[in-house]
Amino acid sequence: MSFKKFVDGSGFKVLAMARLNPCEYSVTLYLINCAVSGLSDVVSTENEIASLIGYDEPTIRQALDSLSQRRIIRLRYGQPHVNPDIDSMRIGMQFDTSKWILDFEPDVTSEDAIVFPFRRAGQTNLQLCNNDKNNNHKGKPIPTWQRVLDSFLQGRNLDNEEMTRAEDIAKILVETHHVDQVLLMIRHFGGRIPTLSLLASSWQHYLEVFDEETHKVDLLDARQKHLEFDEKLREQSRLALEKATDLNLTDEERDVLHILISHRHPRRQLFWAYQSRSRYPHLSSFFADNAALMIAVTSGGKVLYRPNMMEDDDE
Q1: What SS3 class is residue 73?
Q2: CB–CB of 179/147 below 8 Å?
Q3: Every domain of the chain and the residues it spans
Q4: What is the pTM of this model?
Q5: Chunked in runs of 10, what are the mean pLDDT values of the chain (315 residues)?
């Protein structure tokens, strides 16, 4: 399992909750650094590791034994040497967190340690397109190029040759441009882009047209509408909070409403709450009534383009 999959699978969050001691964390971070540098396995000795990390040999030996028993690292000693100071070992990080043995409660696995606030994969899978084809990716992150292809395919029927070509161009587009920008261009132009090949070969032209068309927007008027919609959501949240007893809201559901009332960007925060709406069953009617006010954003906080976002003032 690669380091990238470890990161995408919230490996650092599992590591943060693994309750290791300082020396054990030093060893794991050292091995992660080696893996990032291209060394998935390191051949060394306990003496060398101790000198590199700054602990004595008995402490290092105890840390290695503990990490190995919990399967957080892969450890194998070589044949004993006449001089015990140069007994070699092969050591590497085990990036598959499902194999880790954590000292949590009984029957708790690494999956229970993962926190999914705005996750792009897992139980609260954040996907731009929600169709049957995406169900094939359930339980694992969707490739970036696949998101571009799925967005382009909406409302289109391609034959096998065209589909193969579109997949190849989608991969090229995400390698040469930011994925959010590519998705924005596809959604803005829609049917005006007959093929992804044309978008890739005429990128600068489409970019200039996009700038011309979007600059026609009255930014002051758009900002005012955003502020009005934000305040509308806050007011709806206050009304729901006043009915908390009648709605049998849990403490967590009340906290959601408090966040929406006090947050600087409540419509963005509503988007995140909506992704985990199954946890807030007593707010189902609230989500249904205010779903149109959501602003979809990426996990980095960038706003995703949503058609007619500025329309329907009375919604």
Answers
A1: strand
A2: yes
A3: 3-113, 132-214, 219-293
A4: 0.36
A5: 73 80 90 84 85 87 90 84 69 86 58 44 37 46 84 87 90 86 88 89 86 67 80 93 92 91 88 87 91 69 44 40
